[in-house]
Amino acid sequence: MRILVIEDEKKVAAFVKRGLEQESYAVDVVYDGVEGQHYAEVNEYDAIILDIMLPLKSGLDVLKEIKAAGVKTPVLLLTARDSVEDRVKGLNLGADDYLTKPFAFEELLARLRVLMRRGGYGSPMLKFADLVLDPATRKAKRGELEVELTVKEYALLEYLLRNPNRVLTRTLIAEHVWDQTFDSETNVVDVYINHLRGKIDTKDFTKRLIHTVRGVGYVLKEE
């Protein structure tokens, strides 16, 4: 899943990015309100972490304008102000939750999970055919075979499982599993799909689940 962090304090942004990447999220970071609004409107994200006090355009103005533009992505506000007025204003403009600085990363992560659960990302178990992924424990099984996954393999498998029977282009996969620095000219998506196939579609199983759509991308489906 892909998260947008709009935060001008670079130490805070780096702390959040590092923590989320360790949790298998793809993370884009921008440092001002104008660029943040642009990213939120032109890219597809599963959640947005938005600081209220930003250069060029305030977080509340960004929130107001992206909601007016039809962005449905859940928004978690970060604020150094612990005033009821700021919190109420943000919630009235369409924010889904807020967190006051300084904060513990575990609380940020818990609040993000709640927001994404509301958006349909909170299913405790992801299942397709005989393939099961448990987001809580990060463990995968196909049949009775346990599958060990790297961080990126986990993120890739989760994305496939959340979109079964849907053809996913390489661009879509890259956008959800990697961040904005991803080089679209590389074959890293194909490489990781092959790694995943080597663990999911082994010779122990008669049915393959990960299929190539030539010239387009990949689809998780039963043969």
Protein described:
The model has no long low-confidence stretch (mean pLDDT 89). This protein has a 5-stranded parallel sheet, with helices on both faces. Strands 6-7-8-9 form a 4-stranded antiparallel sheet, with helices on one face. It has 2 domains: 2-121, Response regulator (Rossmann fold, 3-Layer(aba) Sandwich), CATH 3.40.50.2300; 126-220, Orthogonal Bundle (Arc Repressor Mutant, subunit A). The protein has 8 helices and 12 strands. By secondary structure, the protein is an alpha/beta fold. It is elongated and about 60 Å long. It is 41% helix and 22% strand. The protein has helices spanning 10-22, 33-42, 59-68, 84-92, 105-121, 151-161, 170-177, 188-200, and strands at residues 2-6, 26-30, 47-51, 75-79, 97-100, 126-128, 131-134, 139-142, 145-147, 168-169, 210-213, 217-220. Helix 6 (151-161) packs across helix 8.
Quick tags:
single chain; 223 residues; alpha/beta; Rossmann fold; Arc Repressor Mutant, subunit A; 2 domains; four-stranded antiparallel β-sheet; elongated
Helix-strand blueprint:
Elements: E1 2-6, H1 10-22, E2 26-30, H2 33-42, E3 47-51, H3 59-68, E4 75-79, H4 84-92, E5 97-100, H5 105-121, E6 126-128, E7 131-134, E8 139-142, E9 145-147, H6 151-161, E10 168-169, H7 170-177, H8 188-200, E11 210-213, E12 217-220
Parallel strand pairs: 1-2, 1-3, 3-4, 4-5
Antiparallel strand pairs: 6-7, 7-8, 8-9, 10-12, 11-12
Helix pairs in contact: 2-3, 6-8
